[in-house]
Amino acid sequence: MKRPFIAIIFTSLIIISSCSSGNRKNTISISGAWALYPLAVRWAEEYKKIHPEVRIDISAGGAGKGMADVLGGLVEIGMVSREINPEEFKKGAIPFAVAKDAVVAVVNEKNPVLHEILLKGLTVDAGTNIWITQDYKTWGDAAGTNSDSPIHVYTRSDACGAAEIWALLFGKKQEDLMGIGVYGDPGLAQAVKQDSLGIGFNNIGYVYDSKTKLQVSGIKIVPLDLDKNGSVGNEENFYYSIDSITDAIASAKYPSPPARELYFVLNAKPVENKVLEDFIKWVLTEGQEYVRDAGYVPLPAETIAAGLSAIE
User: Fold this and answer.
1) Mean pLDDT of 77-93
2) Residue 11 to residues 14, 23, 176, 207, 282: CA-CA distances in angstroms?
3) Does residue 58 sit in helix, strand or coil?
4) How many angstroms separate the CA atoms of 177 and 153, rounded?
5) CATH architecture type of domain 13-101+261-311
6) What percent of the chain has pLDDT above 70?
7) Against a cut of 0.85, is the pTM above it?
8) According to CATH, what is the number of the domain 102-250?
9) Looking at the predicted structure, is the pLDDT value of residue 13 above 90?
10) If I label 28, which of 16, 102, 149, 254 is the partner at 20 to 30 A Cα–Cα?
């Protein structure tokens, strides 16, 4: 059975440990962005192979939850998939970029105008008419056909980086996105899979199969028409596999937004947990070798150097 990168998640909490939970000095707690969750789990698994005494508790729940948890002292690392705002810096947020990915638009594979949508792609103006103003009411409006099938628009109900960066593509914020609110990346992908007239957006880790590296069955990525010429040319068509789109993100062929850096965020209070410090250094060095295999884009050397310098 094919599974997306996150299909192994049946609960929002994974505990990677074989040691006593009583030794908090050997425990790291992490919560936040769905975008980073699969990679954080992979890092925890690999780190534990060389440090079996360390316990790493990881929960997903959105970038907003991760930021609130770390600033509130509930966890040591918040996973955040958007830029840090000034108020969060004032409250003590210290971000470290750890990887990069992107958000893509998705539709059901049985969409009535799928052929036209894949050929023409989605312009920023069209996306604005779907998610912001909702001037497009039918799939005929979106695809330039006579289809009168209504567009069912989906967005995220939780405060999250995916919605924030998707809205930024249209010069807006998450609260400006219209549509049926759905919790979490897995939930939004599932909603579109079950609705032939649906359109939504997902982090790329939730729309590619972890084994085949191809798009998961049930949904299709809507390519962006970046040059606004009414068709998706070869230079814009890089969605075939997780490898092809991560290459496009790394080379900036896929724009930012909706590509973005992903962050581990610490609280500004002094780090007394040496295991935490070692883990973050490992993520920025040896841990980067697992980034691409997990379906993400590794950081450039200068970004890693800046992060290591900040830790020191």
Assistant:
1) 96
2) 8, 25, 29, 19, 27
3) strand
4) 10
5) 3-Layer(aba) Sandwich (3.40)
6) 91
7) yes
8) 3.40.190.10
9) no
10) 102
Separation of alpha carbons 267 and 110, rounded Å:
46
pLDDT one-digit tens code per residue, 114-155? 999 999 999 999 999 999 999 999 999 999 999 999 999 999
CA–CA distance from 93 to each of 71, 75, 148, 173, 311 (Å)?
Answer: 7, 13, 48, 21, 14
Asked, as a colleague might, if the bond just before 258 is cis with ω within 30 of 0, I would say yes
Contact predicate 302/309, CB 8 Å: no
Bridging pattern class, strands 180-182 and 152-156: parallel
Judge whether residue 209 has pLDDT over 70.
yes
Name the nearest CA neighbour of 245 among 32, 5, 31, 41. Answer: 5
Strand, coil or helix: 261: strand
3-state secondary structure string across 201-253: EEEHHHCEECCCCEECCCEEEECECCCCCCCCCHHHCCCCEHHHHHHHHHCCC
- Which residues face 104 on adjacent strands? 202
CA gap 44, 287 in Å, rounded: 10
Would you put residue 92 in left (φ > 0), alpha (ψ -120 to 50) or beta? left
User: How many Cβ atoms are within 10 Å of 100's Cβ, its own excluded?
Assistant: 20
Rounded to 10 degrees, what is the CA torsion of 81, 86, 89, 93? Answer: -20
User: Rounded to whole angstroms, what are the CA distances from 86 to 73, 75, 78, 142?
Assistant: 19, 21, 16, 37
Closest CA to 237 of 253, 250, 252: 253
Nearest partner of 248 among 123, 106, 115, 104, judged by Cα: 104
Give the H or E element holding residue 60: strand 55-60
